[in-house]
Amino acid sequence: MKNPVEHSINPLFAARWSPYGFDATREVSRTDLEAIFEAARWTMSAFNAQPWRYIVGVRGRSQETWDGVFDSLLEGNQGWTKNVPVLALGLAQRHYEHNGKPNKTAFHDLGAASAALTFEATARGLAVHQMAGINPDRARRIFELDEDTQPFTALAIGYAAESIDEQDEFAKRDQQPRVRKPLSELIVRGGF
């Protein structure tokens, strides 16, 4: 899938995409998972607090956790994630550990860490589809999370499916062209 860019960038950024179709027959190696979460570990954060946490379930290896993450997804996401080999929840610690004050950037920092792991995954030939469609209260109950730990996103990780079922509504979404707003709409003041 060709992804036109307005300006020259590292090809990794244009190659990254969030498929709905995942290959259920291909496992993700422990080595690849360790590397992508290592990339998240090295992400910048306010006061170097590293407020992100992940719950990671691998189909067949940590099945109970995979099932718990799957059960935390909203129904609309459960339809297409049933074949995903790795499901994860992205969590944010809402207060700083060093002083107990609210961390206003915790969700931003979680997003940055998840972006870092996504680009490492892309470099390894994997795909990551991030989702906001979770039930945080259900996730909190399933995984017995404390009140400071906020379930915020879910991540589907695996290899994109090479062939699709033309009747599948999600597969049709994967066939749509990837579109981005022009840079001129994103820089709202000042310029280069």
Secondary structure: elements and pairs:
Elements: H1 11-15, H2 30-41, E1 52-58, H3 63-72, H4 75-81, E2 86-93, H5 106-123, E3 127-131, H6 136-143, E4 149-158, H7 169-174, H8 183-186
Antiparallel strand pairs: 1-2, 2-4, 3-4
Helix pairs in contact: 2-5, 3-6
Word description of this protein:
The chain has 192 residues and is α+β, with helices and mostly antiparallel strands. The protein is 36% helix and 16% strand. It has a 4-stranded antiparallel sheet with strand order 1-2-4-3, sandwiched between helices. It is globular, with a radius of gyration of 17 Å.
Number of helical segments with 4 or more residues: 8
The major β-sheet equals: 4 strands, antiparallel
Tally of DSSP β-strands: 4
Please, what is the average pLDDT? 92
Low-confidence stretches: none
| Alpha carbon gyration radius | 17 Å
How would the global form be characterised?
globular
Q: Widest sheet: strand order?
A: 1-2-4-3
Into which percent range does the helicity of residues fall? 25-40%
Class per helix and strand makeup: alpha+beta
Strand content: 15-25%
How far apart are the first and last residues' alpha carbons, in Å?
30 Å
The sequence of SSEs as H and E is: HHEHHEHEHEHH
What are the salient characteristics of this protein?
192 residues, alpha+beta, 4-stranded antiparallel sheet, 36% helix
State the gist of this model.
This protein is of the alpha+beta class and 192 residues long. The chain has eight helices and four strands, in the order H-H-E-H-H-E-H-E-H-E-H-H. Helix 2 runs antiparallel to helix 5 and helix 3 packs antiparallel against helix 6.
